[in-house]
Amino acid sequence: MANKREPILEPVSILSLRPTQMTVGMREVNEKRKRWRTHSKKRRAELLGQHMIPVVVGPDKRNYVIDHHHLARALHEEGEKEVLVSVVADLTMVDKKAFWVVLDNHRWVYPYDAKGERRHYVDLPKNITGLKDDPFRSLAGELRRAGGFAKDTTPFSEFLWADFLRRRLSRKSVEADFEKAIEQALALGKSKDAIYLPGWCGPASDD
């Protein structure tokens, strides 16, 4: 097992962070931005100290983000320059050609685009500004908050839900009427078709 390190308490540049996914839900990013603006400078400093970004250090010594992409993007959009990171694994000894395979094996990378199609690792964005909007990721996040499914430890669980919804709703309909899409998503999330998904709550009974 790759050796773990203590959190890096020296701030690192947000733009130096390397994403391990291709998309975010920009609706979620914007919600985080709105919440951030409500905090005082003191509270913002406290939050930056509490919400460390989990990373894996690659053979190129770069920090690869394995969670909180939405937060990192929101902070960048709000003008923050640096964050604290927590190193989950040090993979500096891994061969460069094997690095992404190792990440995939640990389920620390999700190289799927906004259409839900798998892409080559080289297509992953080089920094968080390159993350594309996937409205179905926003829909899945809102569905979870509305009680459509339970929070789960399965890596990228909300992306799995996003892909489930993508195959049943059109992107145009989600972008045109998000509230109606949530209602439809709630019904779909309770159906037997979603039984294989992480955090599925399902119908209470078959009545």
Describe the structure.
With about 210 residues, this protein is of the alpha/beta class. The protein has two domains: about 10-135, Conserved hypothetical protein from pyrococcus furiosus pfu- 392566-001, ParB domain, CATH 3.90.1530.10; about 135-195, Orthogonal Bundle (Helicase, Ruva Protein, domain 3). Helices cover about 40% and strands about 15% of the residues. The chain contains eight helices and six strands; from the N terminus they run ββααββαβαβαααα. Strand 3 and strand 4 form a beta hairpin. Helix 1 crosses helix 3, helix 5 (about 135-145) crosses helix 6 and helix 5 (about 135-145) packs across helix 8 (about 180-190). The longest helix is centred in the last third of the chain and has 13 residues, at about 180-190. The N and C termini lie far apart (about 50 Å). The relative contact order is 0.16. The model has no long low-confidence stretch (mean pLDDT about 90).
